[in-house]
Amino acid sequence: MSNLFPVYQRWEIQPAEANGSTIIDKNGKVYLDFTSGIGVCNLGHRPKAVEAAVKEQLGNFWHVSNLFEQSGQEKAASLLCEYAGMDRAYFANSGAEANEAAIKLARKATGKTKIITFLNSFHGRTFAAMSATGQEKIKHGYGPMLETFVYVPFNDIDAVKKSADGETAAVMLEMVQGEGGIHIADKAFVSELASFCKEKGILLIIDEIQTGIGRTAKPFAYMHFDIQPDIITSAKGLGSGLPIGAMLGKEHLADAFGPGSHGSTFGGNPIAIAAASATLAAVMNDGFGTELEQLSESFKAVLLDRLADISGVKDIRIFGMMAGIEMATEANSVLQELREKGLIALPAGTHVIRLLPPLTCTLDQIEKAAGIIAETLRASASVHS
Ligand SMILES: *Cc1c(COP(=O)(O)O)cnc(C)c1O
């Protein structure tokens, strides 16, 4: 019997070691990891520069509390704000906590309470983040949610306009709904949404927890659209595997988060901060961005070329290094077959295979993964027809 609460449905693999784009299990079997630990290990497993920065900080101090000014936090905030096009950072320990901070800040800064979010969205598992999430299955059994969230269909500007009123503090959205099945925001919708929010004095919050830190081949996904969000949230890839989240805001919001208004014992932990600064230094390197753009183009071309004509594949949605392969059948049994063949991929919703490979993977690894998926889907299509 396990002493863990069984909140996770586990796979059959027990990792022993991980390196770059691969995981080796306790039997020595090598897997290609196209999950990046669910969008976390964007630089692959154990990137050398991050490992070195963490080891160095382990030799200085591990924790001193946020009563001290810490040069590490200042440096990480400065790198992150530059990379993200924002002015102020608050460090938390997870994505849900970053979204909590965003929700609290939006309410405090505007003095209003209503927040519009989208059906099929995912914003995390704490009470406010869960309340913000537009999926019933996440909320089941937990009783009344925070009442001030309103959910509208994704990419539907008229629904946003109809739901907004004088009590609306913010609109919060993902540029690509990750957990919800890789659904990409429309350009026209996003630009109309941004001008509507500006005109009405409604804050625009972009949840970049899965889409940030290079995942969409730009630093943050909002940069594919011609908009300026008031708040963005980051986590997953920010610490290359160490737990850290951040809520970033524009300067006009700084006064609403004054001393004593918010905080966290571990927020901005020195070890996690060292990992974040080293991660940011790596992704902010000019060469990294150029190579990533090329890799993401190959990723798209290879997947479309190998998978588009397979019967049973209903749709393929790709944005940067995020891919959703929507199938006629459920994803779980296919995912298990992929693991047997040495490829680890994710579900998103029930019918979508989601790929979030390391941004440092090779074209050979992409071709290998696409080959395994094609072979598996062709076999399963012939069984089902
Ligand atoms: C993963 C995720 C979260 C929650 O992050 P946690 O670190 O698990 O709390 C929130 N929003 C989005 C878009 C995510 O992908």
Q: Which keywords apply here?
A:
alpha/beta; binds pyridoxal-5'-phosphate; 12 helices; 17 strands; 7-stranded mixed β-sheet; 385 residues
Helix and strand topology:
Elements (H helix, E strand, L loop, with lengths): L14 E5 L2 E4 L4 E4 L2 H4 L8 H11 L12 H14 L3 E5 L2 H16 L3 E5 L8 H6 L3 H4 L9 E4 L4 H7 L4 E6 L2 E2 L5 E2 L2 H14 L2 E5 L23 E4 L10 E5 L20 H14 L2 H22 L5 E7 L2 E6 L3 H10 L2 E2 L1 E3 L3 E4 L7 H22 L1
Helix pairs in contact: 2-9, 3-9, 10-12
This protein binds pyridoxal-5'-phosphate.
The site of pyridoxal-5'-phosphate has 15 residues, from α4.
How does this model look, in words?
The two termini are 41 Å apart. This protein has 385 residues and is of the alpha/beta class. The longest helix is centred in the last third of the chain and has 22 residues, at 286-307. Helix 2 packs antiparallel against helix 9 (270-283) and helix 10 packs parallel to helix 12 (363-384). 47% of the residues are buried. The protein is built from twelve helices and 17 strands. The mean pLDDT is 97. The strands form four sheets. Strands 4-12-11-10-7-5-6 form a seven-stranded mixed sheet, with helices on both faces. The chain has a four-stranded mixed sheet with strand order 1-2-3-15. The structure holds pyridoxal-5'-phosphate (PLP). Pyridoxal-5'-phosphate (PLP) is lined by residues 94-96, 99, 122-124, 174, 178-179, 207, 209-210, 235-236.
